[in-house]
UniProtKB/TrEMBL annotation:
Pfam families: DUF3131. It comes from Methylococcus capsulatus. Keywords: Membrane, Transmembrane, Transmembrane helix. This is DUF3131 domain-containing protein. Residues 60-422 form the DUF3131 domain. The chain crosses the membrane at residues 12-30. Residues 435-509 are annotated as: Disordered. Residues 498-509 have a biased composition (Basic and acidic residues). It comes from the Bacteria. Residues 443-463, 473-486 have a biased composition (Low complexity).
Length: 509
């Protein structure tokens, strides 16, 4: 039979095959996440980062930041209080503590002996913490006892649920430890082997758990915008399929710049969807931005710069603690349908508490080598106590220091100084021969590092470590209607000191 005749004879089969292929292609196209085409970037080239050996002043910044962790470390457990003097923490803040420790060691702020001792205690504590329902870390822990805490900072035998974003955060330093500190790799592995990380992603989205008012555990989507993207990258380090976040991406015009925001309404999804600086800054400092991340962060940076040009008010807007009630606020670049709102955790407008975030200011300074970045750093340079650590920032309308202190602010300063000298934290770093540490870790006695390794650029890390493997299984999926965000926060004094603790540590991401 000739070739044309064979084709003719098989025409019915070929039509069926082509039909099936066309149907499959159509289904795949229809189910692809729709992502808006990004609007044009602000005029001008995106600047490069600021790299090089630390100056004497920047060394003092790093050493002042480490003082926070020295002062707030619990002797019995090695964990650090999320907020100054309040003995509660979260997995997010514990991740910040570990990243700060790694940065402090590489910068020569602490020597290898102190690093090994502190890291060993924290890893031992994480290997012993009780887990919510025996599966994943609870939202809050008491740093003195390792016991689970509730949203009021009181001991809780059962726990209150888990945060997918917070857990993803602590995976970042654990991955760094496996690749760069083999002496501690087995300890890091022992921590993660207990956790059912497969429970964090359900039906393709990040999922958190919370115990509702009736005592029922509800599961719902967690994470918004850049926080969700950050968590997805962290989970990818463990080889866990990252959820697609493109479907939750939009743009809003702020100060003449189209900035990214998450259009999912909080009334429907029960999670805050504010655009703030923190997730963009830490993604750059820890992972190094990819092209999209670099462009999105540039939009947020430029909107803040344009606000300064229009108002004369230096702007580094982010979430963070404040030193009086309501004790925690969101300084949003964009929230809901409006820009430049400052909101309490219950959604109230509290514009008197708008403040320049010191950690963000230092982070933007090293990520973008610009005049505005230098102005932010100059303002932040006076916002630390060399004996205690960095303050949260500077109030705009009150025109004074926001004297709240937290692990998050001080960790960001140390991460920024590491990025300045060595590049991103998530990388397989070359062996580092450090000079003898300064005679004291207190800033007034500090000597600047000699810059060894300043020109070395980190190689990209592999996606998961050979030792750091999670406990996974075929856990069933339960749909939940409740919010996966941490409960609302406020604070008290005196007999209610414990109630201040968890509220200071928790964030809605």
């Amino acid at each position: 039979m000739s070739y044309p005749k064979a084709l003719l004879a098989a025409r019915q089969h070929l039509v069926v095959i082509l039909g099936l292929l066309s149907a499959a292609a159509l289904v795949s196209w229809l189910e692809m996440p729709s992502c808006p085409v990004p609007p044009p970037l602000p005029a001008g080239e995106i600047p490069g980062a600021l790299h090089g050996a630390l100056s004497e002043e920047e060394t003092r910044w790093a050493q002042a930041a480490w003082r926070y962790f020295q002062r707030n470390s619990q002797e019995e457990t090695g964990l650090v209080d999320a907020a100054d003097g309040r003995s509660v923490t979260t997995l997010w803040d514990t991740g910040s503590h570990l990243l700060a420790m790694i940065a402090a060691h590489r910068l020569g702020v602490i020597d290898r002996s102190e690093f090994d001792q502190r890291l060993g205690r924290v890893l031992n504590a994480l290997a012993r913490i009780p887990l919510f329902q025996g599966e994943l870390p609870n939202r809050f822990y008491l740093t003195e006892t390792l016991g689970m805490a509730d949203a009021e900072g009181l001991p809780s035998d059962r726990g209150v649920g888990w945060s997918a974003v917070d857990i993803a955060r602590v995976l970042v330093p654990l991955d760094v430890i496996v690749w760069n500190y083999p002496a501690h790799a087995a300890e890091a592995s022992a921590v993660v082997r207990r956790w059912r990380l497969d429970r964090l992603v359900r039906e393709g989205v990040l999922t958190g758990a919370v115990v509702d008012a009736q005592g029922q555990v509800e599961y719902s989507q967690e994470g918004r915008g850049a926080y969700e993207a950050y968590a997805a990258k962290a989970l990818a380090l463990m080889g866990i399929a990252a959820p697609a976040v493109a479907v939750s991406h939009g743009y809003a015009k702020v100060q003449g710049v189209e900035v990214p925001f998450d259009p999912r309404p909080p009334e429907r999804f029960s999670t805050r969807n504010y655009t703030v600086g923190e997730p963009y800054v830490i993604e750059g400092l820890e992972f190094g931005w990819d092209r999209d991340g670099r462009e999105e962060a540039w939009r947020v940076f430029r909107a803040q710069e344009n606000r300064f040009k229009a108002t004369g008010r230096l702007t580094a807007a982010s979430s963070g603690p404040v030193d009086e009630a309501p004790y925690f606020v969101y300084n949003a670049v964009y929230a809901g349908t409006r820009s430049w709102q400052t909101l309490a955790t219950d959604g109230r407008e509290v514009s008197d508490f708008r403040f320049l975030n010191a950690g963000d200011a230092v982070g933007w300074h090293v990520l973008y080598d610009t005049e505005y970045g230098r102005q932010l750093a100059e303002k932040a340079a006076g916002l630390f106590d060399p004996e205690r650590g960095w303050y949260a920032g500077w109030y705009e309308t009150k025109d004074r220091v926001n004297r709240a202190m937290s692990a998050g602010t001080n960790a960001m300063v140390l991460e920024a100084m590491h990025f300045r000298q060595f590049g991103a934290l998530v990388a397989v770093q070359p062996p580092l021969e450090l000079a003898e540490p300064a005679p004291s870790t207190r800033p007034q006695a500090a000597q600047p590092p000699d810059g060894r390794g300043a020109a070395a650029r980190a190689k990209p890390a592999a996606k998961s470590g050979p030792v750091l493997r999670a406990r996974t299984g075929m856990a069933g999926s339960r749909k939940g209607k409740g919010a996966s965000a941490a409960p609302k926060t406020s604070t008290g004094h005196g007999a209610k000191t414990r109630k201040t603790d968890a509220r200071s540590a928790g964030k809605h991401r």
